[in-house]
């Protein structure tokens, strides 16, 4: 990863002195920026990999598989050792670069990625005011300081550093003009020993695919021998998170049209990330009574994985919903851009079920002249297809990652968008996923209907057909032809069924009858093959899913990893 920006951020970090970088911290005290020696380059083990949530590393045990696949057509590979301009580069995502703290992720590496992002962004828009946020993870503050130094070297005039800043709040700040762009030091829903960099740009959206491609070119290209001199007038100031979260919460609350008929009790579990307290504040603004759990940011997230899509991470909130007699629960990921909702029984409402419910009740809230189209990812449940089609929306499937959906909202080509990990958005609320806006929309539904959440969700399920959703991951790798053969064979042997059609928007998706489907796709995030799907919710479905997973695991583990 010897990119042009490496020399830039090496100069930037070395140029800054402790005196020049003193800034008031979150506690109001003064601190000197940690000096980050540039060294001779980024560590040899640093890997770039694309995925729906960032550039990642492949696990050590899968590197031999990567090398074996180097000449396989259609395979996306990381920038490997001894590659400066690889023929098959990484597939970037909207959420930047991530890695293990102290290994792939260091303050210097974060500054390198940030510098490349800024070089690309500044070709398309002004970037005088840069918002730099970090969450509670280790090395977040040091990385934010290094990013600020690199930004100043590139000519950014005003850095605004905000500790414990939720990603949707940063997006809202860019959307409303409080900053030209935002760089977030966070690894979102990944385990505590990870960290990374995300980017949000005007008009409040992730980087486009083309911008990401250019960032990767900078990261993998030759060093730039003449970095810019920077701006002697540049400043770095620190602000408390409340300076930005309060306006964001107020804007979300203002989206509601229905007043609260009674004071709902709502469990808010921030999983010890940075969005729990702002979300609890939104609940208060909506006329609800929040019951905060895990709302204090912690570097280790209290021993949890800060990912609400993991059932284990929702257990605490479910217990608290039942113990407190709450009306619903909200569980957020580490940086607050993913959300799961629980009903009053403590049962999880899957993201596509929540989206379908909100889409049905959107009605009068839909802007005049809005596109009659819904954009979803390939892993989104069938219930969204059925609700959208019944309401007269066209529906399109896209690769996994909200970066593929956000441009459609921005261009007026979609009225709403939904992914499969608690990420959803409506054009009237913004151009990126925002759980705060989603909760405001849910509040309108609950206030208008005065019905318990479980009743509303069960009704949507009953009217649109109940299917059993599943998602898992198996180790190994395979090209598209092999994945197709493995999927078709597994379905034939386990279900006695052949796909009615197969699509390859992202991975291999086998469509069966009655809304059932089975998707196999390589995971750029953690390596291996991701399996998603929905099958008829019969008494035998659990055993069928076990057999499907077992067959795929065995087939992928057998023989060479070739297409």
UniProtKB/TrEMBL annotation:
InterPro entries: A-D-PHexomutase_a/b/a-I, A-D-PHexomutase_a/b/a-I/II/III, A-D-PHexomutase_a/b/a-II, A-D-PHexomutase_a/b/a-III, A-D-PHexomutase_C_sf, A-D-PHexomutase_CS, Alpha-D-phosphohexomutase_SF. GO terms for biological process: carbohydrate metabolic process. Belongs to the phosphohexose mutase family. Transmembrane segments: none annotated. Pfam families: PGM_PMM_I, PGM_PMM_II, PGM_PMM_III. The keyword Lipoprotein does not apply. SUPFAM superfamilies: Phosphoglucomutase, C-terminal domain, Phosphoglucomutase, first 3 domains. Its cofactor is Mg(2+). GO terms for molecular function: intramolecular phosphotransferase activity; magnesium ion binding. Keywords: Isomerase, Magnesium, Metal-binding, Phosphoprotein. The keyword Nuclease does not apply. Residues 94-218, 256-346, 352-459 form the Alpha-D-phosphohexomutase alpha/beta/alpha domain. This is Phosphoglucomutase. It comes from the Bacteria. Residues 22-46, 72-96 are annotated as: Disordered.
């Amino acid at each position: 990863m010897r990119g042009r920006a490496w020399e830039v951020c090496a100069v930037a970090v070395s140029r800054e002195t402790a005196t020049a970088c003193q800034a008031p911290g979150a506690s109001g005290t003064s601190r000197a920026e940690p000096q980050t020696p540039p060294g001779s380059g980024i560590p040899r083990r640093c890997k770039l990999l694309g995925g729906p949530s960032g550039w990642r590393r492949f696990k050590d045990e899968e590197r031999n598989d990567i090398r074996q696949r180097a000449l396989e057509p259609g395979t996306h590979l990381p920038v490997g050792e001894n590659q400066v301009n690889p023929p098959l580069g990484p597939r970037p995502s909207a959420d930047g670069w991530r890695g293990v703290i102290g290994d792939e992720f260091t303050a210097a590496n974060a500054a390198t990625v940030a510098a490349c992002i800024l070089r690309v962004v500044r070709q398309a828009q002004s970037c005088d005011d840069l918002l730099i946020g970090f969450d509670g993870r280790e090395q977040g503050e040091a990385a934010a300081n290094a990013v600020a130094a690199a930004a100043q070297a590139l000519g950014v005039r005003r850095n605004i550093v905000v500790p414990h800043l939720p990603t949707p709040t940063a997006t809202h700040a860019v959307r409303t003009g409080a900053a030209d762009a935002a760089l977030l030091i966070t690894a979102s829903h990944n385990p505590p020993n990870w960290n990374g960099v995300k980017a949000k740009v005007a008009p409040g959206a992730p980087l486009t695919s083309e911008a990401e491609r250019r960032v990767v070119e900078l990261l993998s290209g030759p060093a730039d021998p003449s970095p810019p001199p920077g701006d002697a007038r540049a400043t770095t100031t620190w602000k408390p998170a409340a300076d930005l979260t309060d306006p964001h919460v107020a804007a979300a609350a203002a989206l509601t049209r229905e007043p609260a008929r009674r004071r709902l009790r709502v469990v808010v579990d921030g999983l010890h990330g940075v969005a729990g307290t702002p979300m609890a504040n939104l609940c208060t603004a909506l006329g609800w009574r929040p019951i905060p759990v895990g709302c204090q940011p912690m570097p280790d997230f209290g021993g949890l994985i800060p990912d609400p899509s993991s059932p284990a991470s929702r257990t605490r909130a479910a217990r608290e919903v039942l113990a407190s007699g709450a009306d619903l629960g909200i569980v957020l990921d580490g940086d607050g851009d993913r959300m799961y909702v629980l009903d009053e029984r403590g049962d999880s409402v899957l993201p596509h079920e929540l989206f379908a419910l909100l889409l049905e009740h959107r009605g009068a809230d839909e802007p005049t002249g809005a596109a009659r189209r819904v954009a979803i990812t390939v892993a989104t449940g069938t219930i969204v297809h059925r609700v959208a089609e019944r309401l007269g929306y066209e529906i399109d499937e896209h690769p996994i990652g909200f970066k593929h959906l956000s441009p459609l909202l921005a261009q007026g080509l979609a009225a709403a968008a939904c992914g499969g990990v608690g990420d959803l958005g409506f054009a009237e609320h913004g151009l990126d996923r925002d759980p705060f806006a989603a909760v405001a929309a849910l509040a309108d539904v609950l206030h208008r209907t005065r019905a318990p959440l479980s009743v509303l969700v069960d009704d949507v399920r009953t009217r649109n057909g109940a299917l059993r959703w599943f998602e898992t991951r198996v180790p190994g790798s395979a090209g598209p032809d092999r994945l197709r053969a493995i999927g078709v064979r597994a379905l034939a042997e386990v279900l006695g069924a052949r796909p009615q059609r197969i699509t390859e928007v992202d991975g291999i998706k086998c469509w069966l009858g009655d809304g059932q489907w089975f998707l196999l796709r390589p995971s750029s995030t953690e390596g291996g093959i991701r399996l998603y799907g929905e099958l008829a919710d019969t008494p035998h479905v659990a055993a069928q899913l076990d057999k499907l997973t077992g067959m795929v695991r065995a087939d992928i583990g057998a023989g060479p990893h070739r297409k």
